[in-house]
Design a protein that fits this description.
homodimer, DNA-binding, Arc Repressor Mutant, subunit A, 3-stranded antiparallel beta sheet
Chain lengths: 134, 134
Amino acid sequence: MNSPVEALDYVEDCSAPAMGPLGDSRYLCSVEEAARIVGQKWTLQIVNVLMDFGECRFCVLQSALGGVNPSTLSARLKKLEEEGIVAREQLSSMPPHVVYRLTDMGSHLSGVINELTSWSRTWLCAGIAEPTAS
Amino acid sequence: MNSPVEALDYVEDCSAPAMGPLGDSRYLCSVEEAARIVGQKWTLQIVNVLMDFGECRFCVLQSALGGVNPSTLSARLKKLEEEGIVAREQLSSMPPHVVYRLTDMGSHLSGVINELTSWSRTWLCAGIAEPTAS
DNA sequence: ACGAAGCGCTACATTTGTTGTAGCATGGGG
DNA sequence: CCCCATGCTACAACAAATGTAGCGCTTCGT
């Protein structure tokens, strides 16, 4: 990767938390990995919609997300499927539809979504406007 | 554009939350807004580093994040500053340094980071086994 | 005092990602 | 048979991120 040494040098002068014997930037590996997934443009929104709706068809996701372009949505869903967050299911029923839903792994992102929602309500919605008619 | 009507039709059959007369995808505004911020490539990592280190100089952030390119980091920090998540402080002390730190708003993202971390530990680090498609 | 070096960036060309619009294959309905 | 909806894919155009270079400033070594 790079040299996190300088960072750590600095850290010891600052108020860095005591980190494990790993001692390198690995300490943030967990968030880093998750951030790579979550820090993609539509990931969080997709997960959120899937969480609320339970399961979605492609076109429903598209419109629920405000008209994402199908290429992007397709790519993102494919990636999320690879990562085990979303499951794709082909219903061979009468109208042969495709349905996307969250896996266990994906469902467990609810904590993140919830935290994000409450943060948003406190800091984003609260002072600005009245988007939530609750 | 397309027609979000189908989405709502679908929604009412599924477990969608009761949404106002707005009738479109606005119902997820809170997460949507937050996702726009958090769903940027380096935002979460920056917040995480700032949260751990307390305060950081530019170059420290750069190395801690694994060598992000300075243009991107600069742009992201500027944006985060505008949004009120990060505060920039110019220290006029002996070596005139610049320090970045989280504002209250930014600090309150800790819940998100924590959830993300524990999710990551459970599903990314710990069990790289199989994603059980529920 | 002069040059080198570190810091906090900015500039610019290249690469990557996202968007808009079109279109294809499949199946259903008129 | 034609036309439409669904679930995508294709492709050009635009935007964002990257790599590399460099600037202005200041401090340090000599």
